[in-house]
Amino acid sequence: MGPHTIVPVSDQIVVRGAREHNLRNISLELPRDALIVFTGLSGSGKSSLAFDTIFAEGQRRYVESLSAYARQFLGQMDKPDVDFIEGLSPAVSIDQKSTSRNPRSTVGTITEVYDYLRLLYARAGRPHCPICGEPISRQSPQQIVDRLMALSEGTRFQVLAPVIRGRKGEYAELFRQLASQGFARARVDGETVMLTDPPILDKKYKHDIDVVVDRLAVKPTVKQRLTDSVETALGLTQGIVTIDFVDLDAKDPLRERRYSEKLACPNDHDIAIDELEPRQFSFNGPWGACPECSGLGTRMEVDPELVVPDDEKSLDEGAIAPWSSAHVADYFQRLIASLAEETGFSTTVPWHSLPSAAKKILLFGVPGQVHVRYRNRYGRERSYNAKYEGIVPYIERRHAEAETDTSRERFAGYMREVPCTACRGARLKPTSLAVTVGDKNIAEVASLSIDEAATFLAGLELTDREKQIAERVLKEINERLKFLLDVGLDYLSLSRPTASLSGGEAQRIRLATQIGSGLVGVLYVLDEPSIGLHQRDNRRLIETLIRLRNLGNTLIVVEHDEDTIRVADWAVDIGPGAGEHGGKVVVSGPVEDLLTSEDSITGAYLSGRRQIALPSQRRPRQKGREITVQQATEHNLKNVTVSFPLGELIAVTGVSGSGKSTLVNSILYTALAKRIYNAREVPGRHRAITGADQIDKIIHVDQSPIGRTPRSNPATYTGVFDHIRKLFAETPEAKVRGYQQGRFSFNVKGGRCENCTGDGTIKIEMNFLPDVYVPCEVCHGARYNRETLEVHYKGKTIAEVLDMSIEEGVEFFAALPSIARHLKTLNEVGLGYVRLGQSAPTLSGGEAQRVKLASELQKRSTGRTLYVLDEPTTGLHFEDIRKLLGVLGRLVDNGNTVVVIEHNLDVIKTADWLIDMGPEGGSRGGTVIAEGTPEQIAANPRSYTGEFLRPILMGREVPVGEAQPSLMDAPTNGGQPAAKKAAAKKSTATGTKKTATAKTTTTAKKVPVKRAAAKKAPAKKTAPARLAG
Asked: What is the pLDDT of residues 685-700, one digit of tens each?
């Protein structure tokens, strides 16, 4: 090969010998400049290959190309366990990191759109007076002269220099000074005086003094003289000149005109506006932030609705919640009774029937003293005078004076975040809000939804000068907004706090930012970008990914979504199982190969050979068993009243941003948690919740990621490790040695190996090379010291128990219900292969999600428990969803209620009841479009969800079962109906043909743990057959 031969760039990425985490020495070739989907069961090794191997190596190589000095300041990338990778480009990863919880972080700030808006307003904004709203402007002496010369010829005026404006003083020295400078006349408080004989002013009053600089009439020859006079006047007054048109009536508003070299109000309002700068529009610095709320836009205020949660109660029945507790009730009851006597209102009528004047007195107090009379327990009459400050000032005072957190939290429970009264939630100073572009200030543009903001900015009418300045900035803003629209975020507003975004929304914002960079030849690695997206918006996301690929980038997408997999150029299925049963490449080729592969579970689901079955029948709605949220108005909800039938699997559906999370998380869950557990969190605005007495326990699984520290593992997260340590502490050997539970923790001194402080590995820092981890040479990775490992339970040490898989643990601890209950649930959601002590950072997203689900679902259900799950299928494969549905189905069979917020059609089609929100996202959403069984929603032409359900349910409608009175009679004892229902399902499954199904059913009889899978599997085969036949 000659010295100048050009080596062709490899058109594929070649991976050889990848062994990261559970990967089994994988080797594969991937095409470049293609959309590649990595799929497979949750925990099979997709992320290990995509993120921990390919992305990590791409980023590490880029970092290593920098100097050794620069590398010290960058996070060192560990070299992945792989022989070699060829054909890599610089890599960018877009994963599901949780967003910033900082209240100052908004959608506008993280997408940089707000930074460009600040620049636009600073350079092309039109300032107005914040007091009167008049446009304020600056003029050079030349512009002032030109405007005066444009007046009709012969117009007479005098040029005045306003030296004093509304200030007290005698000003004798000023008059002397002006006379010495050659000025002859001045106007003092509207009267013209000669400076040779100035008036003696009263220093107790405010005065206005204008120097008469010149008296002129408009004609062509006067231009030079006028310029000199204007410049003299501006010099005297630091940039302000007044022109007095002497021929006009003194009362005429146009008699005087002010011109200013600075920005000044024409109506003489005293405003200090500096040169406009971008920092004046930032709510994160003192130059722009509202001084009242420091730029947060909200403040805490007592909410009368929280003070009087039930307006049906009277004052005697304890309507005022903070004063209904036992130790203060007596005192305030007497005080209110005396107040009622004096002011003439009744304490026995419901709160809502009280006159508004009485409510005002009760809430905000009365001046002076109230004379209180009462009889004590001995029958003697006692009286005293007391001040009644009112419930609102009382709570504010106690909240401000609180010395402990619990006390402060107690009073904060009656307060709600409300918009700041000074800036009305706009976060900025009045002077910044008075600057407009196209008649809107920056806060009004930020509060528009992204599609409205894009329309507004695209249709801006600007002058030629403004156009020239704003053209580049507007182009940048419009491009960024377009990318946000493309990924389906049209309903978000730029002022939306990032803390309120879901994981999927935050990821798509990062994706939009990356597309905006317009890079070519980059390797993008994405982690489930379709999370939280309705099928309707999925199409736009896929088009965005295809556009990224067409630019000349390689995309590796870790995805379970059927639509995304089908449009991919190349599919890699990793499996066949998960964890230790996975880590191999099952299929690597075009999507057709995946569909036809016999070994691929994903292929079986996509081609229809396997499917998540429809239930044999939907659970019937039981009359009177429902929880109703009345008149919800939080965020974008438009006075929504909706019922959740109990004892059913309910799915709340709708396009992204339609108000699902607000209704379920902010109102239903928070209000019930406050009612049942006295939780501190304030629910969203709604009138009332009825039927809550039928629930005695509520469990919530939200989208927050589980702690990812190396010291966290499934055993510690679910709490089962506490029981295991207790068990070891109770063994005879531990008792003889006097070991307590703490001895068996690897997080505290005592039982752990001190050489590696209980980590099992030792990190050797290599400065500018990646750190090297070696097993601890003292404990050889066991994490405990020798003495602790001499304690055995059933022949195993604590280290060996942590090294067990959950499947083994179920059998090992079968006799101990407190431990077995946790492990059974973990096994049922499909995590049997995970080791009890497996470090949390090595769990995949789907595994972590199921560990979290299992730790909540294992809690003892009462048969009257409400489970609220926010997108539980995040990170789950079709097969994992089937197992999860089995667990949820069994919870509902026991009389409990499960409410899921979900976009996944497999979950939606198996639900008993759907509540569809919409019709659009953001301000165009917030109403209930339809509620009913999936079949009823599919028949509704207004529902987007129904549109996608229709083809799935076509000709396979599921009947609603008969109502079972036993559930109503004994809701706490749910075992019997569950058994009946399971039996019913099994009896419908007798006609099954597949041997695999029969095998599952027989195992189910032996091991009760597998019942969920067994129940679903037969129905899966028979439902279509039965309905078809």
From this structure: 999 999 999 999 999 9
